Amino acid sequence: MTTTISSREFNRDVSAAKRAAEDGPVVITDHGRRSHVLLTAEEFDRLTGGTEFVGDRLRMPRGEAIDLELPDRTTAELRVPEL
Predict the structure, then answer these.
(1) Which residues contact 9 (CB under 8 A, 6 or more apart)?
(2) Alpha-helix runs per DSSP H in 1-83
(3) Residue 15: which CATH number?
(4) Alpha carbon distance 1, 48 (integer Å)
(5) How does residue 22 score in pLDDT terms, banded at 50, 70 and 90?
(6) Region Disordered: start and end of each range (predicted)?
(7) Does the global pTM surpass 0.90?
C-alpha cells in the first residue's frame, strides 16, 4: 500500500513515515508534487537487485584493499581544432 505525505508532515514526524514504509512506499510531496519516495532498505535492495554503488565502496573500513581496474591512458596525439 502506498502512503502519501507532505514534506511538512515528514519533517514533523519522521518516525511515522518510517513505520509507514514498512507497509509500502511512502511518497513525499513538496507543494503538492511528488518529490521523494521512502522505502525500506530491504525493498530498495529488492528493486535494485542488490547492486553495489560507488558510495558503498567509499564507506568500506580502512585498510581493506580495493582492486581498481583503470583503462590505459591514450598515447594518441592531440589535434588543435580549426577555428
Answers:
(1) 16, 17
(2) 7-12, 14-21, 41-48, 54-58
(3) 3.40.1620.10
(4) 20
(5) very high
(6) 1-23
(7) no
